[in-house]
Amino acid sequence: MGKITEVTCMVVLLCGLAAIAEAEHVKYKDPNQPLNTRIKDLMDRMTLEEKIGQMVQIDRTVASQQVLKKYYIGSVLSGGGSEPLREASAKDWVDMVNGFQNGSLSTRLGIPMIYGIDAIHGHNSVYGATIFPHNIGLGATRDPDLAKRIGAATALEIRATGIPYTFAPSIAVCRDPRWGRCYESYSEDPKVVQAMTEIIPGLQGDPARKGFPYVAGKEKVAACAKHYVGDGGTTNGINENNTVIDRHGLLSIHMPAYYTSIIKGVSTIMVSYSSWNGKKMHANRELITGFLKTTLNFKGFVISDWEGIDRITSPPHANYTYSVLAGVNAGIDMIMVPRNYTEFIVDLTLLVKSNAVPMSRIDDAVKRILRVEFTIGIFENPLADYSLSDQLGSQVSSTELLKPTFCNMKSSVQTI
């Protein structure tokens, strides 16, 4: 009996050591593994429920550790200037983001969520942040290097609040000054807008490999080129309306800045509320999957606008199951469903199980989302610290940035 017990104990010990070794060498947790190896290893372990959860982005007002854990939520955002509390400090922001992150890290696979915020002229939703001129003013300088430096300063302040992702820049080409969002456009000239996409390597860092999503460490953030495509060309400048233009016009006026953004490694692209010749962009498979992902070979993820798929129908949310079907099959990878996330999850799950949305479409979405998350480095550093807190509203960085501006503006005026 003694020998049998000894052998049994040895077997149990070896099995235990093997299990520990396996846990310590899970490929997706190993930063030394190739990116595609990590993505495949993680996806092979994920259930349908976990994959669909990754495709969901909810607003912070409905988020909690319990919600993120239960539904495997992939992303949280601050919508419309939403903040953890009035005049919140950098520390307050870090604590909030980390609180949500702890919910994600407590899931079975520990996949971190990605927090996003609008920072379109500085970290503009945050009290005490440096506010820079809006795009229309920056475009007037004709100074791409200034845009890049502003991007770098903005990224640093975003990271100071523990956030790794911003919904910027807007690369709309405003063709009618009656459009209420012309201030978000660098110019009516697509060449100027193309040049000012230099803000993207400012936010993300200079790409290590052209045409591939890239974020260069803890002082940089993932960027988002928006709104794809033609949002600045709507009839009579009516916001979220119809852009009536032939394919040549669309590609030559509204698309060039997207070509350049992709080359510069932009991580994500947001779809426009507007339509192209009567077809809602959120349901436009030809332009999202066909042109953006296939022709332009965009490797990051495509995100919807705030309740963007709801607006596929008129009135919005009139046939939500259809909207989910049309939006996801069009090629949108992450869906901004700030409040009704449970309805989205239920509908998409049923659509997959009935084969209306193919599993290959879900896998494409999740692969793209994970690619960006691994690139950001949040698997290795999911929780932010307070080390960059003093960079929020830094007078040194903003003063240095603006020193050459007036000289550049003068030079620009002389050449216009």
Automatic annotation (TrEMBL):
The lineage of its organism: Eukaryota, Viridiplantae, Streptophyta, Embryophyta, Tracheophyta. GO terms for biological process: glucan catabolic process. Residues 1-23 form the signal peptide. Residues 47-372 form the Glycoside hydrolase family 3 N-terminal domain. InterPro entries: Cellulose_Degrad_GH3, GH, Glyco_hydro_3_N, Glyco_hydro_3_N_sf. It comes from Kalanchoe fedtschenkoi (Lavender scallops). This is Glycoside hydrolase family 3 N-terminal domain-containing protein. GO terms for molecular function: beta-glucosidase activity. Keywords: Hydrolase, Signal. It comes from the Eukaryota.
